[in-house]
Design a protein that fits this description.
about 140 residues, alpha/beta, about 20% strand
């Protein structure tokens, strides 16, 4: 399996460091970029074209506004949102996030969800088509 290229966007540096440590090449991942704010994450995604973007949902409205843009800009990138309250999670999934991961997830769960989100989107729009047929993105 080739490495899954991941960008991470978390305001809390320590949280981002923990994710970076969990997504090491030994497990099939490569963190290609890290941002502290959603507008920086957009620029990173445009430049680096990651397979998966891990996005801090605890940042609220800026994150949700960004999700609304991502689908059209990067159709071959999966987005996994982390944290957030129930309403924000529902909104994020409705806006095209492939999955949600709670902040209490283990490193193994993080790798499982990121890998599954990447494998679930081999061509543009697969998540959207699954939802249109009554399917739901998974939530851990």
């Amino acid at each position: 399996m080739s490495e899954i290229a991941v960008c991470i966007c978390f305001a809390a540096e320590l949280f981002g460091l923990g994710i970076r440590r969990a997504l090491v090449p030994d497990h099939g991942f490569r963190v290609v970029g890290e941002a502290r704010a959603v507008h920086d994450a957009l620029r990173l995604c445009a430049t680096l074209r990651p397979d998966v973007l891990l996005l801090d949902l605890d940042e609220g409205q800026p994150t949700l506004a960004m999700l609304d843009q991502l689908e059209g800009l990067f159709p071959q990138m999966s987005v996994v949102v982390v944290g957030g309250d129930v309403d924000a999670i529902d909104q994020a999934l409705a806006l095209g996030a492939a999955a949600h991961l709670p902040t209490t997830a283990s490193s193994d769960q993080l790798r499982q969800v990121v890998g599954a989100a990447w494998r679930a989107l081999p061509e543009p729009g697969r998540w959207r088509m699954a939802r249109a047929r009554g399917g739901r993105p998974f939530i851990l």
